[in-house]
Amino acid sequence: MTQRVTMDPTPAKSIQAAKRGLSRSLLRNPGVSGVGIVDAEGGHPSIMVYLREDSPQVRSLVPQAVDGYPVVVETVGPIQARM
C-alpha cells in the first residue's frame, strides 16, 4: 500500500539532505528496508521509505513529510544485495 501527501512548495533543505536525516533515524529499525528518492506525481521529488513489513508500529515511525518533501511508503519485504 502506498501513502501520498501534498508537497510543501518551499522546502527548507535539499531533498538529499532531508533523505540523509530520515535515513539515519529510520534505518536503525529492523522494519525498514531502505530509504530513497523518487519522482512523485506531477514531477515533484518525494522521499520513499521501503518497509520489510507493513505494521502500525513501523508506520508510526515514518513521518508524512520531511523538510517540506512528502514521504511515500511502500512495503517491499527484505532487500538483499546481489553479487
Uncertain spans, ≥5 residues at pLDDT below 50?
none
Q: What spatial order of strands do you see in the largest sheet?
A: 1-2-4-3
Instruction: Name the helix and strand elements from N-terminus to C-terminus, one letter apiece.
Output: HEEHEE
Query: What is the distance, rounded to the nearest whole angstrom, between the alpha carbons of the first and last residues?
Result: 29 Å
What is the 3D shape?
A: globular
Give the CATH architecture.
2-Layer Sandwich
Write a short abstract of this structure.
The chain is an alpha+beta fold and 83 residues long. It has helices at 15-26, 56-59; strands at 32-39, 45-51, 65-66, 69-75. The chain has one domain: GMP Synthetase, Chain A, domain 3 (2-Layer Sandwich), CATH 3.30.300.
Walk me through the structure:
- By secondary structure, this protein is of the alpha+beta class.
- 19% of the residues lie in helices and 29% in strands.
- The chain has a single domain (15-75), classed as GMP Synthetase, Chain A, domain 3 (2-Layer Sandwich).
- It has helices at 15-26, 56-59; strands at residues 32-39, 45-51, 65-66, 69-75.
- The protein has a 4-stranded mixed β-sheet with strand order 1-2-4-3, with helices on one face.
- The longest helix is centred in the first third of the chain and has 12 residues, at 15-26.
- The radius of gyration is 12 Å and the shape is globular.
